Amino acid sequence: MIRSTFFLLVLLVSFSSCDTDDEVAISDFEIAKSKWKNLQFKDYTIQENTSCFCGGLLEWTTKVINNEKDTVYFDDSKLYKGQTYQMVLDGAKTIDEAFDFIEQFDVTTVYSFEVVYDEQFGFPKSIFIDDVENMADDEIAYLCSNFTPTK
Questions:
Q1: Which residue has the higher pLDDT, 47 or 77?
Q2: Can you tell me whether residue 112 is helix, strand or coil?
Q3: Angle between helices 95-104 and 21-39 in degrees, nearest 10
Q4: Which residues, 6 or more positions from 31, have their beta carbon under 8 angstroms from its beta carbon?
Q5: Which pLDDT band, with edges at 50, 70 and 90, does 52 fall under?
Q6: Residue 2: its pLDDT value, please?
Q7: Rounded Cα distance, 100 and 88, in Å
Q8: What pLDDT does residue 24 have?
Q9: What are phi and psi of 46, to 5 degrees?
Q10: Which N-terminal residues, if any, form the signal peptide (predicted)?
Q11: How far apart, in whole angstroms, are the C-alpha atoms of residue 95 and residue 46?
Q12: Domain boundaries, the chain
């Protein structure tokens, strides 16, 4: 009886301690989002870059005031085929919007979805998406850097 109870306990601990990749990713997400929320930044600037084999403006700085996009700064000469300021502003994301994107993204529709979080502030530093395994030029990366609180 004692032996079978001990064996059952060992099995339960073994199975409960095994994490799948999804559970680890969710845990990283929750830790990072909690860190970000606890810091309560409402006003900041952040540089955003898109890395892909696609057209359009791929780099800008977003100014956020009271958790809302206020202004985007970029090199006008890099606008692409009819792209406008409003299109760039609409495409820019606040950090809260980046967390929403990650949380709502259906990872079962792509080959790979990886996120790296800033250790100090918790915001997503990079989001990497690879749609199809072994297909060239389908990957896209969203990068955030130069985070600066403004208040």
A1: 47
A2: strand
A3: 160
A4: 117, 122
A5: confident
A6: 43
A7: 19
A8: 55
A9: -150, 140
A10: 1-19
A11: 9
A12: 20-149
What's the N-to-C CA distance of the chain in angstroms?
A: 64
Contact 78, 57 (CB under 8 A): yes
Least confident segment among 130-134, 136-140, 145-149 = 136-140
CA dihedral 74, 87, 71, 121 (to 10 degrees): -80
Mean pLDDT for 119-145 is: 90
pLDDT tier, 23 (very low <50, low <70, confident <90, very high otherwise): low
Closest to 68 (Cα-Cα) out of 49, 93, 47: 93
80 touches 54 (CB < 8 A): no
The amino acid that residue 30 corresponds to is: E
62: closest CA among 151, 147, 122?
Answer: 147
Residue 103 structure tokens: 């949380």
For the whole model, what pTM was predicted? 0.77
For residue 120, give both structure tokens: 């100090």
